[in-house]
Design goal:
By secondary structure, the protein is an alpha/beta fold. It has three domains: 255 residues, Rossmann fold; 79 residues, N-(1-d-carboxylethyl)-l-norvaline Dehydrogenase, domain 2 (Orthogonal Bundle); 134 residues, NAD(P)-binding Rossmann-like Domain (Rossmann fold, 3-Layer(aba) Sandwich), CATH 3.40.50. It is built from 19 helices and 15 strands. The strands form three sheets. A seven-stranded mixed beta sheet has the order 3-2-1-4-5-7-6, sandwiched between helices. Strand 1, helix 1 and strand 2 form a beta-alpha-beta unit. Helix 4 crosses helix 5, helix 5 crosses helix 6 and helix 12 crosses helix 14. It starts with a strand and ends with a strand. Bound molecules: uridine-5'-diphosphate-glucuronic acid (UGA). The site of uridine-5'-diphosphate-glucuronic acid has 21 residues, from helix 12.
Length: 490
């Protein structure tokens, strides 16, 4: 099927590339020409295991194209994915300017029946809003360019589009004097995690499709059929780096209305963030009461009603999704006069968790001013170079404000993030952060850190203090090496 993916951020790029891998004809569009140039030459704009392999493979097979030409891409493809960013505004609500711009472009360029798929995380009701913008722009432009390949004045929808993508009565359409262009909007939220985005796309827990058009949902099911049926072949190159977690039974498809699909996305992220804040609050109680949160989490996680996932206590959640989406949901609720006491607490517990680390540093070192502190990990979680709202950054900035000297190392983050205090010294090698350190803080649980030779590295330190912000390291071993070890909730 012919698909255009607008926006080559995490979501757009992974979605487009994975759809090309299962045999579809994909055009990925971005207005950042440098990024497109790099992608065309096989250089990835993000660190995501396996992505480069799939991009190169599908560029070669011609299933995948990259372009800045949004008009031609919209005109030539039948399914248009909106995958642009919806960054948070200062008040926490989602900024929809990029979605709006893309919807205008779709309206301006629509020349046959299209399915417009909203994959960007948008506030409840945005699906209808996107429809209105597209319609308004069809209105204002009429799109009657006789050069358009799919335009046929005698037969508004050319055979191909007409037969394959026939519209139903619920579809929005604008009848101009001569021609009408129809489209349906589908909400298809993504649930992929950075670092495992490709496996999450190929082996999802579910696919959510929300629309008022049954036919559009059916076409989307056709698009995802190889994934739903798990009938695609995982290429050998990918098998080397990704676990083959193919399911034997079909992937559940949730067919629903637009608004419910949009709400599923917010509710899923908010629930996961709630689970983490819950376990962090329990960890804080464990710490005072003398219990071990790892055992407690294991003990409650075995209850199938609770489940073991997302119960790792630590310095809290960050990234580009949870902080943005939980806040946005509180804003949406406020518009309806609903107070989100639980979600507000989830956000507060998370921000306190970062400050608690700074308090632990003060307890350990007493005087922070002038002390040398080494940070292991900057990214908001392992296997990504994303540092957006990373807990490590808040912690580093607060410690620098208290007068600490910070040396930091991350296996993939090599550029100092803008939000990080520039006094931070970025170390090229992990052992450099141990040189003369009074304290080490593990902020991101990169696998590389589990295998460090702490016996040797401890000899480089001035004081053997260590805060394990992710409860990731071998506590017993570190204690036996003479470390003053503090975890979270244990
Ligand atoms: C999250 C969701 O997990 C995805 O399903 C969703 O598609 C994505 O947001 C999105 O909305 O785009 P992601 O932000 O990549 O994915 O990362 P997660 O693996 O969910 O981790 C989020 C944060 O929670 C990280 O900072 C991580 O360190 C923290 N975390 C996670 C914990 O502190 N404890 C845990 O037990 C699990």
């Amino acid at each position: 099927m012919k698909v255009c993916v607008i926006g080559t951020g995490y979501v757009g790029l992974v979605t487009g590339v994975c759809l090309s891998e299962i045999g579809h004809n994909i055009i990925c569009v971005d207005n950042d020409s440098e990024k497109i140039k790099k992608l065309l030459s096989g250089v990835m704009p993000i660190y995501e295991p396996g992505l480069d392999i799939l991009v190169l493979k599908n560029l070669n097979s011609k299933n995948l194209q990259f372009t800045t030409d949004i008009s031609s891409a919209i005109k030539s493809q039948d399914i248009i994915f909106i995958c642009v960013g919806t960054p948070p505004r200062p008040d926490g609500s989602a900024d929809l300017q990029y979605v709006e711009e893309v919807a205008k472009q779709i309206g301006n360029n629509i020349n046959s029946y299209k399915i417009v798929v909203n994959k960007s995380t948008v506030p409840i009701g945005s699906g209808d809003w996107v429809s209105i913008i597209i319609n308004d722009n069809i209105n204002s432009n009429n799109n009657l360019n006789s050069n358009d390949s799919n335009y046929d004045p005698n037969n508004n929808l050319k055979n191909d589009s007409k037969n394959n993508l026939k519209n139903n009565n619920n579809s929005l359409n604008k009848k101009s004097d001569i021609v009408s262009f129809k489209f349906d909007v589908v909400s298809n939220p993504e649930f992929l995690r950075e670092g495992t985005a490709i496996a999450d796309t190929f082996f999802p827990d579910r696919i959510v499709l929300g629309s008022s058009s049954k036919e559009a949902i059916n076409i989307m099911k056709k698009l995802y059929e190889p994934i739903i049926n798990q009938s695609f072949k995982v290429c050998d190159e990918l098998l080397k780096i990704l676990p083959n977690t193919k399911n034997t039974s079909p992937i559940p498809v949730v067919e629903t209305d637009l608004v419910s699909a949009e709400m599923i996305k917010y509710a899923a992220n908010s629930f996961l963030a709630t689970k983490i804040s819950f376990i962090n609050e329990i960890a804080n109680i464990c710490e005072k009461a003398g219990a071990d949160i790892k055992k407690v989490a294991y003990g409650i996680g075995l209850d199938s009603r609770i489940g073991p996932k997302f119960l790792n206590a630590g310095i809290g959640w960050g990234g580009s999704c949870f902080p943005k989406d939980v806040s946005a949901l509180t804003k949406i609720a406020a518009e309806y006069g609903i107070s989100t006491q639980l979600l507000n607490a989830v956000i507060n517990v998370n921000s306190q968790q970062r400050h608690k680390v700074v308090q632990k540093v003060q307890e350990m070192l007493k005087i922070v001013k002038g002390k040398s502190i080494g940070i292991l990990g900057i990214s908001f979680k392992p296997n990504t170079d994303d540092t957006r709202d990373a807990p490590a950054i808040t912690i580093i900035n607060n410690l620098i404000n208290l007068g600490a000297k910070i040396k930091a190392y991350d296996p993939v983050v090599k550029k100092i993030p803008e939000s990080l205090n520039p006094k931070t010294i970025f170390c090229p090698k992990v052992e450099d952060v141990f040189d003369g350190a009074d304290l080490i803080i593990l902020a991101t649980e990169w696998e590389e850190f589990a295998n460090l030779d702490f016996c040797r590295l401890s000899k480089k330190m001035r004081e053997k203090n260590l805060i394990d912000g992710r409860n990731f390291l071998d506590k017993e071993k570190l204690l036996s090496l003479g470390f003053n070890y503090i975890g979270i909730g244990r």
